[in-house]
Amino acid sequence: MAESRSRSPRRHPERRVRCLALSGEVLAEVELEPPAAVADLRAAVRESTDIDVGQSLRFLVGASELKDEDKVPSEVTALISSKDWVITGCSDGSAATWDATTGEYCQSLFGHDLSIISVALSPDSSSIATASSDCTVRLWSVRRQAWRLTLRGHRSCVLCVNFSGDGNFLVSASSDKTARVWSAGSFGECISVLRGHRKDVSWAAFSPDDSCIVTGSDDRTVVLWDAATLARRYTLAHSRRINCVTFSGDGARLAIACRSTEVVVWKVYAMSEVQEEHHLRHPADVFAACWNPKVLHQLAAAAADGRVIIWDAAAGWGRLLGRLFQHSKTTESLSLKAFLLGKDKRGRHRTN
Prior knowledge:
Pfam families: WD40. By secondary structure, the protein is mainly beta. It contains 1 helix and 31 strands.
């Protein structure tokens, strides 16, 4: 009877790959089983180092960047950089984080009982704030992609939340006719309640230098508050309910989007004086507006017809610069960083 022998599958010897930082120091040495691609290398380096989820990791050979499908050489230079995030809130009470560079989904954040109405990212991109119809604001750690704090106190839906410029505080707006100022620290205590609006407070935000808090309401007024004393400084009356209020990056202008076809721009003189400057007209009712952080006098507005329009607010009566894209439904929110992000009523997000 012939003797049968089984052979073990032949294994390729593992390859050691050395990853250097830009300084020339060794960041990591990992072993990969051939055939290994750059995606495998990235996963191995993350596992063996303390590079967190908030940082992107790329690899260079000479001056050329390796793509994920490329084969891995024995030595590479690792390039670590902070990741730009897009945060979305959903009607099921969950939020999601996305890589702004690739558009890839990263992770979902669960905890709210009702729909999320507003989201904000701290200036250092370390924390996410979500405001919900369940009357709470939740804080999340970007690094851990996990819940950190729940801020309770509002008696009705929280319609808006924003961080201060230094990231130490938050301000929230609610349909309970109040805005609240919170600590963004370990305990998340409520520092003050801003009262005086007669209807839902739809918007609340800090000025870029954190000297002022601005609130907008369905009572057709915008109020500027002294952030140090929390005293009411100015009340700006408008003909329609307020959808959005936003400061330019230098704090010199304030744009107010009402439920009408125009955005009103006010000139702000270091809180000593506020003057109406422009009425910028949109073809449809405006739901959101934001300033370009790099070109401080450029203003974008999104409206019910799905269009986003850009103006130069410093030119005469406001010069139209162009139309970037068009959603098929009402565009309800807008953010401008290195790109524009808009969300329509179908829940679709587009960048340009």
